[in-house]
Amino acid sequence: MIRVNPVAKLLAAAMIAVVLVLSVDWVSALTALVLEIPLFAALRVPLRPFLIRAALITVAAALTAVTNLFYGEPAGTVHWHFLLINVSDGSIELALAMFLRVLAIALPSAVLFIDVHPTELADGLGQVLKLPARFVVGALAGMRMVGLLRQDWEYLGHARRARGVADHARVRRFLGQAFALLVFALRRGTKLATAMEARGFGAYPTRTWARPSTFGTSELALIAGAAVIATAAVVVSVTTGHWDFVGGR
């Protein structure tokens, strides 16, 4: 996959998402979805990770579509009615629009960040977007600690069983262990914050960065491509008369 600054990927995904949530129609979503495929190909997205993430997103989109199909506001001809379920022309169109919309919004957000490391994203947020170093570095440290929660959970379970306090009452055992994990996480977070503060990680107003985060032609090209996708989706939807602004519903 072509190396692009994570900030550019974040801005591109946000640009497409913001435009698509402004309307509830299937034309703009389908247009954006079709144009996203060449964008992924240009970035040389790995096929296997793309198919895995696309499959998961498709399942989520299908569940959303089924909900809107059965419980959407009825409009036009009602094809099937059972208790609270109403399948009509309006609910079918809404289900199709929501299915395509979830795909068009979620795919860029998931696919573009396949090879992004949290440290690279933090460097970009701090150097390119000029976000406060305290917030950026603190969030990065928190994300790095999330991976330890599962290991801590296992260790707590072993320790509690060794002391004989986890042999009965599964629900009570789970709640007690969850509280212990919360306390442990708070203590670790406090110690980590103190250590980072002592080492100057949150230096104000400026601080140095070990890895420079550059923003050049590739990043501008990606943002321009996202702008073209968003603009084309709106233009095609408005031209065909399918634009359905959410504020007017």
TrEMBL record:
Topology in membrane: Multi-pass membrane protein
Localization per record: Membrane
Keyword line: Cell membrane, Membrane, Transmembrane, Transmembrane helix
GO cellular component: plasma membrane
Signal peptide (from-to): none
InterPro entries listed in its UniProt record: ABC/ECF_trnsptr_transmembrane, ECF_transporter_component
Record-annotated membrane-spanning stretches: 12-43, 50-71, 91-114, 220-243
Protein name: ABC-type cobalt transport system [Leifsonia xyli subsp. cynodontis DSM]
Organism: Mycolicibacterium parafortuitum (Mycobacterium parafortuitum)
